[in-house]
Amino acid sequence: MKKSTIIAAFFSLAFISPALASCGSDGNNDPSAGAVNVTVAPEFLQADARKQNLELSVTVGADWAITANADWVSIRPSGGVKDATGIVKVSVDANSGLEERSALINILCGGKAIKTVTLTQGFVSQASSSVSSLTFGGQESTSTFTVTSNCDWELSTSDSWISVSPANGSKGETEVRVSVSENNSEIGREGILNLSFAGDKSEIKVSQLSDVVNVPEGYTLVWSDEFNEGSVPGSDWVHENWAAGYVNNELQTYTDKAVDGKRTTEIKDGFLNINCFKGSDGKIYSGRINAKPSTGWLYGYFEARICLPTGKGTWPAFWMMPCNVDWGSNPWPKCGEIDIMEEVGADPDEVSSSLHTENYNHTKNTQKTHAMHCAGAEGEFHTYAVEWTEDAITTYVDGKVQLRCLKSEMGADHDSWPFHYAFHPILNLAWGGDWGGYKGVDESALPVTMKVDYVRIFQKK
Asked: Is 173 among the residues known to form the active site?
């Protein structure tokens, strides 16, 4: 090459147009190496946990674009022109998460990032428990729940019969064990666990029932199950096993077998749990158990303390049928039926009692029945009972008369009053059916559990 050619080439490079150099269009200029003048203010963005709008002032020595690498950040406008100062609105969604998060805001020229602004968003200190309340039987017992937190927390109580471990923790999930001492009083008691964190707090209600047996006047306790021992119902209980649709067009399958590793009946934390759930095969499973169905009891005071489930489609019941029925000569309803308590989730907290006989039954719309509103029947424990004598049957809800039927009023013949032989108690949780599903069912409510604290049977001395 001639010397004059070399000199010309040198001057061509020295005086190349700034517009061409700005975005490195020939591949020899690296915008990130400072070929383009960029002014951004502020150079860092900090947001608190709220939804909010921030601003950036941007000036670039070339046409530019701006983007963010997080979907919780939106930017308007999406870019600008050379040397014109632009105000960029940065909108940030609320951070409901449990920790700080960051995003990168990139200013681009020619498709390359020439400036990056870091946006950091804080979080709200949170600590929450997996339960809002705990209920225990009267015996000394323990239960667990989980605290999920993004900050330090403490659990405290002023009630000496409640203890917790651990009593404090930090970020993450922590299993907490709550223990209660035996309740020797004749009534239940309530306490509070305070979950404190970052200047805030929430409460967990702790209730303990009483296991003290209140014997009705003139009676003596002849049988009971307090459900304080073992993991499954004892030998006095007999399970029903039958397919969906067997009675009342109910949708559940009754079984005593574990399904997907879960039992339909189990004893846990001092309670009998009757579980209704959907199996992996698409079927609904639940439990129905009978107390001493071969012998039962003739007359007496039958009582259970029960916490009913919630959900449209549930149909829990505590009721009685005769023992060793000859269904050929004495079919239902001729044999008789005593419904101490029934409730359907479509009508929350409305509990009812009924008697069915040949002359008085729901197929004729002549059954003897009564319903009442029981606030908290779903989710809280209440007592349901029947006093059955030779001449009368009276049901109770928390000691209040629900239904009273007299033999003298209904008639002494078998078709009107078949209650002259032994009956046995039944506990079950149906799903759907003629009554339980009369407003449809909501499978999103599943799984559900009917909890029973005890069943007690008294007879006259």
From this structure: no
**Helix (H), strand (E) counts: the chain:** 4, 35
Coil, strand or helix at 283: coil
Cis, bond preceding 293 (omega within 30 deg of 0): no
Task: Indicate the SS3 state at residue 367.
Answer: coil
Name the maximum alpha-carbon separation found in the chain.
Answer: 134
- pTM (2 decimals)? 0.77
- pLDDT over 80 (residue 453): yes
pLDDT at 92: 97
- Give the integer Cα–Cα distance in Å for 210 and 264: 26
The one catalytic residue among 342, 343, 378, 387: 342
Alpha carbon distance 150, 301 (integer Å): 53
Query: Which tens digits make up the pLDDT trace of 3-33?
Result: 333 333 322 323 323 333 345 433 333 444 4
pLDDT digits (tens, 9 = 90+) for 290-339: 999 999 999 999 999 999 999 999 999 999 999 999 999 999 999 999 99
Task: List all residues 6 or more positions away from 3 whose beta carbon is below 8 Å from its beta carbon.
Answer: none
CB 274 within 8 A of CB 427: yes
37 in Cβ contact with 21 (< 8 Å): no
H helical segments located in 94-213: none
Looking at the DSSP bridge assignments, the partners of residue 46 are 120
For tokens 């044999």, the residue is: 335
Separation of alpha carbons 314 and 435, rounded Å:
10
Burial of 445 from C-beta contacts in 10 A (0-12 / 13-18 / 19+)? middle
pLDDT mean across residues, the chain: 91
Distance in angstroms (rounded) separating the CA atoms of residues 461 and 449: 36
The question of whether 337 is a catalytic residue gets the answer yes
Query: Which is it for the CA torsion 387, 388, 390, 391, positive or negative?
Result: positive
Strand partners, 177: 144, 165
Considering 337, 343, 358, 387, which one is annotated as catalytic? 337
CA-nearest of 116, 68, 107 to 90 is 68
Q: Cα separation of 80 and 58, whole Å?
A: 9
| Buried/exposed code over 309-334 (b: 16+ C-beta within 10 A; e: otherwise) | bebbbbbbbbbbbbbebeeeeeebbb
